[in-house]
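Hello,

Our lab assistant flagged a job as stuck in the queue for most of the afternoon. It eventually completed. Since we weren't sure the result was trustworthy after the delay, we are filing this so someone can double-check. Below is the sequence as submitted and the structure that was eventually returned. Let us know if re-running is recommended.
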Amino acid sequence: MYTEGPSSLPHVVAWRSVTPQSGGVRRILPDGCLDLIWHEGAVFVAGPDTTAQLAGPAPGDRFAALRFGAGTGPGVLGVPASELVDRRVPLEGIWPAAEVRRVAESDDPASALESAAARRFQPPDRAMVALADGARSALPVTEIADGSGLSERQLRRRSVTSFGYPPKTLHRIFRMRRAVALARAGRAFAEVAAETGYADQPHLAREVRALAGVPLGELVGTRPAPTPA
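-- returned structure --
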């Protein structure tokens, strides 16, 4: 069972999960975020992904975590996101052991994570908030940069530090996730491609396979819906 809700920190989502008895492997799609995760007494960082990750926790395994959006994770962790791309890193490799132990051994790991992150939290970079919002809305990079008062090179440099990858990759990830959500809602794949800005359905198929590792039909558990007449 997976649940999520707002954190007391801006641009952060708190989530919990208990692996069902049926177990199985889960495919975790890239989301442009960085997660701080407690798992059965261990605490680690899930860096920003460039492709789907597969996870197969044991039945009954418990997780409590914070998901940092808008590039807020590096300020809490003290390391740039670019050093964590596609990696799962034990928190004791980043924070002092005593601080990690307080979280790992807490009877309420969700609250312990929140408190630890709050002590280190820094106000979000407004340019990175604008970048995240603009990428979700498929705004051109030049328009996002101009609106933030930055050159494209400056925006790219900050994006790599905050998100782990450049603005165009962030745009690809957000677009793919929106397309998957529409497809899971039963929309025809050709319609999904048009609505989310792909050149055509084959373009959508290539991007989903590149970022998710499987075809869209397999990802959403269905065959492609027919194109409306």
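-- support follow-up --
The delay was a queue issue, not a problem with the job. The result is valid. The beta strands are 2-6, 12-18, 26-28, 34-39, 42-46, 53-55, 62-68, 88-90. The longest strand covers residues 12-18.
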